[in-house]
Amino acid sequence: MNQFVLMQGSAEELSLFPHILELGVVKNSYVQLNALPKAVMTGVKFLYILDGKFHWHIHNSEYTLFPGDVALILPGQEFGSSSAVLEIGSFSFLHINADLKGTDEIILDKWSSLSGNEIIAISKILLLSNPLVITKLNEAGKILKSIQQELCNQEVGYYARVNNYIDELFILLTRQLTRQNNPGRDFHKTFMKLDEALRKDISHQWTVDEMAALAGLGNTLFNEKVKSYTGFTPLNYLINIRISEAIRLLKKPHISITDIALDTGFYSSQHFSTTFKKLTGFTPGEFRKNNSFTE
């Protein structure tokens, strides 16, 4: 097996980039047994197939990848070969240090120029996407090659260029996954997936930026489509979801109103009470008193 690998701690080229754990190209000319056992990933790993065919296990599923295909493995996800075999072929890869904040945000640290809201939006799209495999994305391979060249040549401004390229990888894969998961821009399907994501993480303080990113649309077009489709602005639609869930929870006497407020994404019990009365005509306490409990 021939390979070019820069590893953190031993490669001088990475001395300014503590967030880059590994970068390189693996060229495997024969089948290797016990070379790629399944393991839980620490950090984020990008892999781009240069040639050959690889059967890989990624996050509970099996995939066959061909030249031009990209795989992304996130923190805590399993990666490897079910047979532990490394097949004939070659691929480039980048492994960066990253962790999860809770279960819905990838922490990229200060090297990234992405804004906090952009990182949250990208994180949610990546963590909700399945699979994290994109076919025929040659641009990703070009970016990985550019990172390698910048690190080797070390010309003026290479620190900024390398970090910008890594940001660009995240942006490229996120946009492509959105297009791949929403073929033909069928807004009904897109909206149903968005609705499911909102309900699944209803306590999160969603922004329009995050919701638009999940739909793969710019803010203006997203606002227009949601208003046309539902009759509500995105934030008002989200409030309706929260009130609907709150009504369900209020029928459970063992859950306090304060807990319901926080669990459904309201800032405080007062904010919850004011909004609930505005939309239902009752305070949460009045509603609970006037309705029979199901549990």
Describe the structure concisely for a colleague.
The protein has 295 residues and is of the alpha+beta class. It has helices spanning 116-128, 138-153, 158-181, 187-200, 208-215, 219-230, 234-250, 257-263, 269-280, 284-290; strands at residues 2-7, 20-28, 39-40, 44-52, 54-58, 61-65, 70-73, 78-80, 89-96, 99-101, 105-107, 133-134. The chain folds into 2 domains: 2-181, Jelly Rolls (Sandwich), CATH 2.60.120.10; 184-295, Arc Repressor Mutant, subunit A.
- Provide a count of the helices: 10
Radius of gyration: 23 Å
Helix content: 40-55%
CATH topology of the largest domain: Jelly Rolls
- H/E element sequence: EEEEEEEEEEEHEHHHHHHHHH
Q: How far is it from the N-terminal to the C-terminal residue, by CA? A: 63 Å
Neighbour order of strands in the largest sheet: 1-2-9-4-7-12
Q: What are the segments in which pLDDT stays under 50 over at least 5 consecutive residues? A: none
Write the CATH homologous superfamily of the largest domain. Jelly Rolls
Secondary structure class reads: alpha+beta
Please state the average pLDDT score: 88
Largest sheet: 6 strands, antiparallel
Number of domains: 2
CATH architecture identity of the largest domain: Sandwich
Structural commentary:
The chain is of the alpha+beta class. The protein folds into two domains: 2-181, Sandwich (Jelly Rolls); 184-295, Orthogonal Bundle (Arc Repressor Mutant, subunit A). It is built from ten helices and twelve strands. Strand 10 (99-101) and strand 11 (105-107) form a beta hairpin. Helix 1 packs parallel to helix 5. It is elongated and about 75 Å long. The N and C termini lie far apart (63 Å). The mean pLDDT is 88.
